[in-house]
Specification:
The chain has 11 helices and 17 strands. It is an alpha+beta fold. The protein has 3 domains: 102 residues, Sandwich (Peptidoglycan synthesis regulatory factor (PBP3), Domain 2), CATH 2.60.410.10; 178 residues, DD-peptidase/beta-lactamase superfamily (Beta-lactamase, 3-Layer(aba) Sandwich); 39 residues. It has a 6-stranded mixed beta sheet, with helices on one face. A 5-stranded antiparallel beta sheet has the order 2-1-9-8-7, with helices on both faces. Strands 3-4 form a two-stranded antiparallel sheet. α2 runs parallel beside α5. The radius of gyration is 37 Å and the shape is elongated.
Length: 436
Protein backbone atom coordinates (compact mmCIF):
# COMPACT_ATOMS: atom_id res chain seq x y z
CA UNK A 1 0.00 0.00 0.00
CA UNK A 2 2.82 2.42 0.90
CA UNK A 3 4.48 1.73 -2.43
CA UNK A 4 1.28 2.60 -4.28
CA UNK A 5 0.93 5.86 -2.36
CA UNK A 6 4.53 6.71 -3.14
CA UNK A 7 3.98 5.92 -6.82
CA UNK A 8 0.98 8.25 -6.99
CA UNK A 9 2.98 10.98 -5.25
CA UNK A 10 5.83 10.48 -7.74
CA UNK A 11 3.47 10.90 -10.70
CA UNK A 12 2.12 14.16 -9.26
CA UNK A 13 5.67 15.45 -8.79
CA UNK A 14 6.53 14.56 -12.36
CA UNK A 15 3.57 16.51 -13.71
CA UNK A 16 4.10 19.71 -11.72
CA UNK A 17 7.26 21.02 -13.48
CA UNK A 18 5.44 21.10 -16.83
CA UNK A 19 3.46 24.14 -15.72
CA UNK A 20 6.54 26.38 -15.65
CA UNK A 21 8.45 25.29 -18.78
CA UNK A 22 8.51 27.60 -21.83
CA UNK A 23 8.37 26.47 -25.47
CA UNK A 24 11.28 26.84 -27.90
CA UNK A 25 11.64 30.23 -29.50
CA UNK A 26 14.51 30.87 -31.95
CA UNK A 27 16.18 34.03 -30.71
CA UNK A 28 17.15 36.75 -33.16
CA UNK A 29 15.37 35.14 -36.12
CA UNK A 30 12.53 36.92 -37.92
CA UNK A 31 10.42 34.32 -39.73
CA UNK A 32 8.52 36.06 -42.53
CA UNK A 33 7.14 32.78 -43.88
CA UNK A 34 3.40 32.22 -43.54
CA UNK A 35 4.07 28.69 -42.33
CA UNK A 36 7.26 26.95 -41.23
CA UNK A 37 8.62 23.93 -39.40
CA UNK A 38 12.01 22.69 -38.25
CA UNK A 39 11.97 18.99 -37.40
CA UNK A 40 14.61 16.55 -36.19
CA UNK A 41 14.86 13.68 -38.67
CA UNK A 42 16.53 11.64 -35.91
CA UNK A 43 13.68 11.79 -33.41
CA UNK A 44 10.70 13.33 -35.28
CA UNK A 45 10.63 16.13 -32.73
CA UNK A 46 9.45 19.57 -33.85
CA UNK A 47 11.92 22.19 -32.67
CA UNK A 48 10.07 25.10 -34.24
CA UNK A 49 6.75 25.58 -35.94
CA UNK A 50 4.65 28.44 -37.22
CA UNK A 51 1.17 27.78 -38.57
CA UNK A 52 2.21 24.18 -39.29
CA UNK A 53 -1.39 23.12 -39.98
CA UNK A 54 -2.44 26.19 -41.94
CA UNK A 55 -3.56 25.62 -45.54
CA UNK A 56 -0.89 26.93 -47.91
CA UNK A 57 -0.32 26.75 -51.66
CA UNK A 58 2.61 24.44 -52.42
CA UNK A 59 3.67 25.70 -55.85
CA UNK A 60 6.33 23.29 -57.15
CA UNK A 61 6.63 21.62 -53.74
CA UNK A 62 3.79 19.50 -55.19
CA UNK A 63 6.41 17.84 -57.42
CA UNK A 64 7.66 15.91 -54.39
CA UNK A 65 4.51 13.83 -54.65
CA UNK A 66 4.84 13.69 -58.44
CA UNK A 67 8.40 12.39 -58.30
CA UNK A 68 7.58 9.85 -55.59
CA UNK A 69 4.73 8.37 -57.64
CA UNK A 70 6.95 8.15 -60.72
CA UNK A 71 9.68 6.33 -58.81
CA UNK A 72 7.15 3.94 -57.27
CA UNK A 73 5.46 3.19 -60.60
CA UNK A 74 6.01 -0.33 -61.92
CA UNK A 75 6.73 1.11 -65.37
CA UNK A 76 9.66 3.17 -64.11
CA UNK A 77 12.99 2.02 -65.58
CA UNK A 78 15.83 4.46 -64.91
CA UNK A 79 17.77 3.46 -68.03
CA UNK A 80 14.82 3.25 -70.43
CA UNK A 81 14.25 6.09 -72.88
CA UNK A 82 11.24 8.38 -72.89
CA UNK A 83 10.43 10.94 -75.60
CA UNK A 84 8.86 14.36 -75.12
CA UNK A 85 5.38 14.47 -76.65
CA UNK A 86 3.49 17.23 -78.41
CA UNK A 87 0.60 16.64 -76.01
CA UNK A 88 2.76 17.60 -73.02
CA UNK A 89 4.12 20.66 -74.87
CA UNK A 90 0.63 21.82 -75.79
CA UNK A 91 -0.63 21.39 -72.22
CA UNK A 92 2.21 23.39 -70.68
CA UNK A 93 1.96 26.21 -73.20
CA UNK A 94 0.72 29.45 -71.65
CA UNK A 95 0.84 28.25 -68.05
CA UNK A 96 3.91 30.27 -67.11
CA UNK A 97 5.68 27.15 -65.84
CA UNK A 98 9.39 26.69 -66.42
CA UNK A 99 10.14 24.34 -69.31
CA UNK A 100 13.01 22.13 -70.42
CA UNK A 101 13.03 23.25 -74.08
CA UNK A 102 12.95 19.60 -75.12
CA UNK A 103 11.35 19.13 -78.54
CA UNK A 104 8.68 16.62 -79.44
CA UNK A 105 10.40 13.31 -80.04
CA UNK A 106 13.53 14.29 -78.09
CA UNK A 107 14.55 11.39 -75.85
CA UNK A 108 16.02 11.25 -72.37
CA UNK A 109 16.31 8.46 -69.83
CA UNK A 110 13.53 8.05 -67.30
CA UNK A 111 16.04 8.80 -64.55
CA UNK A 112 16.93 12.09 -66.27
CA UNK A 113 13.22 12.86 -66.44
CA UNK A 114 12.96 12.68 -62.64
CA UNK A 115 16.03 14.93 -62.32
CA UNK A 116 14.31 17.46 -64.57
CA UNK A 117 11.18 17.31 -62.41
CA UNK A 118 12.88 17.55 -59.00
CA UNK A 119 16.11 19.42 -59.64
CA UNK A 120 15.06 21.82 -62.40
CA UNK A 121 11.28 21.85 -61.76
CA UNK A 122 10.33 21.70 -65.45
CA UNK A 123 6.59 21.70 -66.01
CA UNK A 124 6.64 20.04 -69.45
CA UNK A 125 8.62 17.10 -68.03
CA UNK A 126 6.16 16.84 -65.15
CA UNK A 127 3.20 16.58 -67.55
CA UNK A 128 5.11 14.09 -69.70
CA UNK A 129 5.62 11.89 -66.64
CA UNK A 130 1.96 12.13 -65.60
CA UNK A 131 0.75 11.05 -69.04
CA UNK A 132 3.38 8.34 -69.52
CA UNK A 133 2.91 6.63 -66.14
CA UNK A 134 -0.84 7.04 -65.69
CA UNK A 135 -2.31 7.47 -69.16
CA UNK A 136 -3.55 11.00 -68.52
CA UNK A 137 -2.93 13.98 -66.29
CA UNK A 138 -6.33 13.45 -64.67
CA UNK A 139 -5.52 9.85 -63.75
CA UNK A 140 -2.18 10.90 -62.32
CA UNK A 141 -3.77 13.62 -60.17
CA UNK A 142 -6.23 11.05 -58.84
CA UNK A 143 -3.27 8.88 -57.86
CA UNK A 144 -1.66 11.85 -56.12
CA UNK A 145 -4.77 12.41 -54.02
CA UNK A 146 -5.12 8.70 -53.27
CA UNK A 147 -1.51 8.58 -52.11
CA UNK A 148 -2.05 11.66 -49.94
CA UNK A 149 -5.03 9.96 -48.32
CA UNK A 150 -3.06 6.74 -47.78
CA UNK A 151 -0.29 8.69 -46.05
CA UNK A 152 -2.76 10.47 -43.79
CA UNK A 153 -2.21 13.90 -45.35
CA UNK A 154 -5.57 15.27 -44.26
CA UNK A 155 -4.72 18.87 -45.17
CA UNK A 156 -3.50 18.16 -48.69
CA UNK A 157 -5.21 18.09 -52.09
CA UNK A 158 -3.93 18.31 -55.66
CA UNK A 159 -5.54 19.62 -58.82
CA UNK A 160 -2.47 19.29 -61.03
CA UNK A 161 0.93 17.55 -60.79
CA UNK A 162 3.00 20.71 -61.33
CA UNK A 163 1.86 22.94 -58.48
CA UNK A 164 0.35 25.59 -60.74
CA UNK A 165 -1.87 27.81 -58.66
CA UNK A 166 -5.36 26.47 -58.08
CA UNK A 167 -7.68 26.89 -55.11
CA UNK A 168 -7.89 23.10 -54.84
CA UNK A 169 -4.14 22.55 -54.82
CA UNK A 170 -3.07 23.07 -51.23
CA UNK A 171 -1.15 21.45 -48.39
CA UNK A 172 0.27 22.15 -44.91
CA UNK A 173 3.80 22.24 -43.57
CA UNK A 174 3.08 19.24 -41.35
CA UNK A 175 1.66 17.21 -44.22
CA UNK A 176 4.65 18.08 -46.38
CA UNK A 177 7.01 16.88 -43.67
CA UNK A 178 5.23 13.51 -43.56
CA UNK A 179 5.31 13.22 -47.36
CA UNK A 180 8.94 14.24 -47.74
CA UNK A 181 10.11 11.90 -45.02
CA UNK A 182 8.47 9.01 -46.91
CA UNK A 183 9.94 10.19 -50.23
CA UNK A 184 13.46 10.38 -48.79
CA UNK A 185 13.32 6.66 -48.03
CA UNK A 186 13.47 6.11 -51.79
CA UNK A 187 17.17 5.87 -52.67
CA UNK A 188 16.83 7.49 -56.10
CA UNK A 189 14.75 10.35 -54.72
CA UNK A 190 17.34 10.95 -51.99
CA UNK A 191 20.23 10.79 -54.47
CA UNK A 192 18.60 13.40 -56.70
CA UNK A 193 17.91 15.67 -53.72
CA UNK A 194 21.53 15.54 -52.63
CA UNK A 195 22.82 16.51 -56.08
CA UNK A 196 23.42 20.10 -57.11
CA UNK A 197 24.35 19.34 -60.75
CA UNK A 198 23.35 16.67 -63.24
CA UNK A 199 24.37 16.11 -66.86
CA UNK A 200 21.72 15.21 -69.44
CA UNK A 201 22.21 14.11 -73.04
CA UNK A 202 19.44 13.57 -75.59
CA UNK A 203 19.20 12.01 -79.03
CA UNK A 204 18.93 15.48 -80.59
CA UNK A 205 21.47 17.47 -78.59
CA UNK A 206 24.76 17.21 -76.78
CA UNK A 207 25.32 17.28 -73.07
CA UNK A 208 23.84 19.96 -70.91
CA UNK A 209 24.07 20.48 -67.17
CA UNK A 210 21.08 20.86 -64.92
CA UNK A 211 21.49 22.99 -61.79
CA UNK A 212 19.49 22.76 -58.59
CA UNK A 213 17.01 25.51 -57.87
CA UNK A 214 17.88 25.23 -54.17
CA UNK A 215 20.55 27.88 -53.75
CA UNK A 216 21.49 26.49 -50.34
CA UNK A 217 23.20 23.73 -52.35
CA UNK A 218 24.78 25.98 -54.96
CA UNK A 219 28.28 27.00 -53.90
CA UNK A 220 28.37 29.70 -56.57
CA UNK A 221 25.78 31.79 -54.70
CA UNK A 222 25.72 33.80 -51.49
CA UNK A 223 22.98 31.56 -50.14
CA UNK A 224 25.15 28.45 -50.11
CA UNK A 225 25.06 26.42 -46.89
CA UNK A 226 27.51 23.54 -46.86
CA UNK A 227 25.36 21.30 -44.67
CA UNK A 228 22.16 21.59 -46.76
CA UNK A 229 20.75 19.02 -49.17
CA UNK A 230 17.63 19.26 -51.38
CA UNK A 231 14.72 18.83 -51.38
CA UNK A 232 12.51 21.14 -53.46
CA UNK A 233 11.81 24.80 -54.12
CA UNK A 234 8.51 26.33 -55.15
CA UNK A 235 7.20 29.70 -56.28
CA UNK A 236 4.04 31.31 -57.57
CA UNK A 237 2.74 34.79 -56.84
CA UNK A 238 -0.02 33.28 -54.70
CA UNK A 239 2.17 30.74 -52.89
CA UNK A 240 5.16 33.02 -52.37
CA UNK A 241 8.65 31.56 -51.97
CA UNK A 242 8.69 28.01 -50.63
CA UNK A 243 11.46 25.60 -49.74
CA UNK A 244 11.74 22.11 -48.30
CA UNK A 245 15.32 21.23 -47.40
CA UNK A 246 17.41 19.07 -45.10
CA UNK A 247 20.72 19.68 -43.37
CA UNK A 248 23.13 17.38 -41.54
CA UNK A 249 26.00 18.24 -39.23
CA UNK A 250 27.94 16.36 -36.58
CA UNK A 251 25.44 13.50 -36.40
CA UNK A 252 22.35 15.74 -36.29
CA UNK A 253 19.82 15.77 -39.12
CA UNK A 254 16.99 18.26 -39.64
CA UNK A 255 14.32 19.13 -42.16
CA UNK A 256 13.19 22.71 -42.62
CA UNK A 257 9.94 23.60 -44.37
CA UNK A 258 9.19 27.17 -45.42
CA UNK A 259 5.98 28.32 -47.13
CA UNK A 260 4.80 31.76 -48.21
CA UNK A 261 7.86 33.97 -47.96
CA UNK A 262 7.55 37.34 -49.77
CA UNK A 263 7.66 36.79 -53.57
CA UNK A 264 10.19 39.54 -54.27
CA UNK A 265 12.78 38.32 -51.77
CA UNK A 266 14.67 35.11 -51.12
CA UNK A 267 13.99 34.82 -47.43
CA UNK A 268 13.14 31.14 -47.84
CA UNK A 269 16.88 30.48 -48.18
CA UNK A 270 18.11 32.82 -45.44
CA UNK A 271 15.43 31.81 -42.92
CA UNK A 272 16.08 28.11 -43.50
CA UNK A 273 19.80 28.67 -42.98
CA UNK A 274 19.18 30.63 -39.77
CA UNK A 275 16.91 27.94 -38.36
CA UNK A 276 19.50 25.27 -39.12
CA UNK A 277 22.25 27.26 -37.40
CA UNK A 278 20.01 27.86 -34.39
CA UNK A 279 19.36 24.12 -34.08
CA UNK A 280 22.97 23.03 -34.56
CA UNK A 281 24.24 25.61 -32.06
CA UNK A 282 21.63 25.23 -29.35
CA UNK A 283 20.41 21.63 -29.27
CA UNK A 284 21.90 18.26 -28.49
CA UNK A 285 20.87 14.67 -27.84
CA UNK A 286 19.90 14.07 -24.22
CA UNK A 287 18.94 10.82 -22.55
CA UNK A 288 15.59 11.74 -21.09
CA UNK A 289 14.50 8.36 -19.75
CA UNK A 290 16.40 5.14 -19.11
CA UNK A 291 15.17 1.60 -18.67
CA UNK A 292 16.85 1.09 -15.29
CA UNK A 293 14.43 2.94 -13.03
CA UNK A 294 10.67 2.37 -12.62
CA UNK A 295 8.35 5.23 -13.57
CA UNK A 296 5.08 3.78 -12.22
CA UNK A 297 3.47 0.67 -10.79
CA UNK A 298 0.09 -1.02 -11.09
CA UNK A 299 -1.73 -3.60 -9.01
CA UNK A 300 -1.54 -7.35 -9.67
CA UNK A 301 -4.28 -9.92 -9.07
CA UNK A 302 -4.10 -13.74 -8.99
CA UNK A 303 -0.55 -13.81 -7.61
CA UNK A 304 0.75 -14.89 -4.21
CA UNK A 305 4.19 -13.40 -4.98
CA UNK A 306 3.25 -9.70 -5.06
CA UNK A 307 0.33 -7.34 -5.29
CA UNK A 308 1.98 -4.86 -7.69
CA UNK A 309 4.34 -4.71 -10.68
CA UNK A 310 6.77 -1.88 -11.49
CA UNK A 311 6.72 -0.37 -14.99
CA UNK A 312 9.89 0.61 -16.85
CA UNK A 313 10.53 2.52 -20.08
CA UNK A 314 11.07 -0.15 -22.74
CA UNK A 315 14.24 1.04 -24.50
CA UNK A 316 15.01 4.32 -22.87
CA UNK A 317 14.37 7.61 -24.68
CA UNK A 318 16.79 10.05 -26.27
CA UNK A 319 15.56 13.50 -27.29
CA UNK A 320 16.94 16.56 -29.05
CA UNK A 321 16.76 19.27 -26.38
CA UNK A 322 18.37 22.63 -25.65
CA UNK A 323 21.92 22.24 -24.44
CA UNK A 324 21.02 24.08 -21.22
CA UNK A 325 17.84 22.06 -20.60
CA UNK A 326 17.32 21.24 -16.93
CA UNK A 327 16.46 17.57 -16.39
CA UNK A 328 14.22 18.57 -13.48
CA UNK A 329 11.86 20.23 -15.98
CA UNK A 330 11.37 17.02 -17.96
CA UNK A 331 8.35 14.98 -16.95
CA UNK A 332 7.32 11.40 -17.62
CA UNK A 333 3.56 10.89 -17.41
CA UNK A 334 2.55 7.19 -17.31
CA UNK A 335 -0.63 5.83 -18.88
CA UNK A 336 -1.06 2.21 -17.70
CA UNK A 337 -3.47 0.08 -19.70
CA UNK A 338 -5.27 -0.89 -16.45
CA UNK A 339 -5.14 -0.06 -12.76
CA UNK A 340 -4.89 -3.76 -11.94
CA UNK A 341 -3.72 -6.59 -14.20
CA UNK A 342 -3.99 -10.33 -13.77
CA UNK A 343 -1.05 -12.65 -13.43
CA UNK A 344 0.71 -14.26 -15.17
CA UNK A 345 2.90 -11.37 -16.34
CA UNK A 346 5.95 -11.91 -18.53
CA UNK A 347 9.15 -9.92 -18.37
CA UNK A 348 9.05 -7.35 -21.17
CA UNK A 349 5.25 -7.42 -21.43
CA UNK A 350 3.82 -4.02 -22.44
CA UNK A 351 1.45 -2.73 -19.77
CA UNK A 352 1.00 0.87 -20.88
CA UNK A 353 2.68 3.93 -22.36
CA UNK A 354 4.22 7.11 -21.04
CA UNK A 355 4.37 10.61 -22.50
CA UNK A 356 7.70 12.41 -22.29
CA UNK A 357 6.96 16.09 -21.77
CA UNK A 358 9.21 19.11 -22.07
CA UNK A 359 8.23 22.75 -22.49
CA UNK A 360 4.56 21.81 -22.07
CA UNK A 361 4.71 19.61 -25.17
CA UNK A 362 4.79 15.88 -25.63
CA UNK A 363 8.16 15.20 -27.24
CA UNK A 364 7.75 11.43 -27.35
CA UNK A 365 5.71 8.43 -26.29
CA UNK A 366 7.29 5.20 -25.04
CA UNK A 367 6.06 1.76 -24.05
CA UNK A 368 6.01 0.79 -20.39
CA UNK A 369 6.92 -2.82 -19.63
CA UNK A 370 7.31 -5.21 -16.73
CA UNK A 371 10.89 -6.13 -15.81
CA UNK A 372 9.96 -9.39 -14.10
CA UNK A 373 7.96 -12.58 -14.48
CA UNK A 374 5.02 -12.96 -12.11
CA UNK A 375 3.40 -16.38 -11.84
CA UNK A 376 -0.33 -16.99 -11.53
CA UNK A 377 -1.63 -18.71 -8.39
CA UNK A 378 -3.86 -21.73 -9.08
CA UNK A 379 -5.53 -21.31 -5.68
CA UNK A 380 -6.45 -17.65 -6.25
CA UNK A 381 -7.59 -18.49 -9.76
CA UNK A 382 -9.91 -21.17 -8.36
CA UNK A 383 -11.27 -18.78 -5.73
CA UNK A 384 -11.99 -16.21 -8.42
CA UNK A 385 -13.73 -18.81 -10.59
CA UNK A 386 -15.95 -19.80 -7.68
CA UNK A 387 -16.65 -16.16 -6.85
CA UNK A 388 -17.44 -15.34 -10.47
CA UNK A 389 -19.74 -18.34 -10.67
CA UNK A 390 -21.54 -17.42 -7.48
CA UNK A 391 -21.97 -13.82 -8.66
CA UNK A 392 -22.80 -14.67 -12.26
CA UNK A 393 -26.06 -13.76 -13.99
CA UNK A 394 -27.04 -17.41 -14.01
CA UNK A 395 -26.65 -17.68 -10.24
CA UNK A 396 -28.45 -14.37 -9.74
CA UNK A 397 -31.45 -15.85 -11.55
CA UNK A 398 -31.17 -18.98 -9.40
CA UNK A 399 -31.05 -16.85 -6.25
CA UNK A 400 -34.16 -14.98 -7.35
CA UNK A 401 -36.01 -18.20 -8.12
CA UNK A 402 -35.02 -19.68 -4.76
CA UNK A 403 -36.17 -16.51 -3.07
CA UNK A 404 -39.49 -16.68 -4.87
CA UNK A 405 -39.94 -20.35 -3.87
CA UNK A 406 -39.08 -19.60 -0.25
CA UNK A 407 -41.43 -16.63 -0.23
CA UNK A 408 -44.25 -18.72 -1.71
CA UNK A 409 -43.55 -21.47 0.83
CA UNK A 410 -43.65 -19.00 3.72
CA UNK A 411 -46.91 -17.50 2.48
CA UNK A 412 -48.37 -20.98 2.07
CA UNK A 413 -47.38 -21.96 5.61
CA UNK A 414 -48.87 -18.78 7.00
CA UNK A 415 -52.10 -19.43 5.14
CA UNK A 416 -52.32 -23.04 6.37
CA UNK A 417 -51.65 -22.00 9.94
CA UNK A 418 -54.39 -19.42 9.71
CA UNK A 419 -56.95 -22.02 8.57
CA UNK A 420 -55.91 -24.45 11.32
CA UNK A 421 -56.47 -21.87 14.01
CA UNK A 422 -59.98 -21.18 12.76
CA UNK A 423 -60.85 -24.88 12.92
CA UNK A 424 -59.62 -25.19 16.53
CA UNK A 425 -61.53 -22.14 17.71
CA UNK A 426 -64.34 -23.13 20.35
CA UNK A 427 -67.56 -21.14 20.61
CA UNK A 428 -68.22 -19.85 24.21
CA UNK A 429 -71.69 -20.50 25.67
CA UNK A 430 -72.58 -18.34 28.70
CA UNK A 431 -73.58 -20.29 31.87
CA UNK A 432 -77.07 -19.48 33.37
CA UNK A 433 -77.33 -19.99 37.17
CA UNK A 434 -81.18 -20.41 37.01
CA UNK A 435 -80.93 -23.53 34.91
CA UNK A 436 -79.29 -25.44 37.73
Amino acid sequence: MLKRIFSAFLIICLILPVLTVRAYEPSGIDITAQAAMLVSLDTDEVLFEKNADKKVYPASIAKIMTALLVLENEKFDPDAKIAMTQEALDLISGTGSSVSLLKAGEEITQLDLVYMILMSSYGDCTLLAAIHYSGSVENFVNQMNSKAQALGLTGTHYQNPIGLHHEETYTTARDTYKLTKVALKNKIFKEICESSRHTVKTNLSGERTLSTTNLLQDNTTNYYYQYAKGVKTGFTDEAGRCLVSTASYNGYNYMCLIFGCPPNEKNHFTESKELYRWAFNNFEFKKVADSDNPVAEIGVDLSLETDFVSLYVENGFISVLPKDADHSTISIVPHPTKEIVDAPIKKGQALGTADIIYAEKVIGTVNLISNEDIEKSALLTAFRAIKNFLTSTYMTVVYVLIGIVVLVFILRVIKLNSKSKKKRRIKYIPYDEDEK
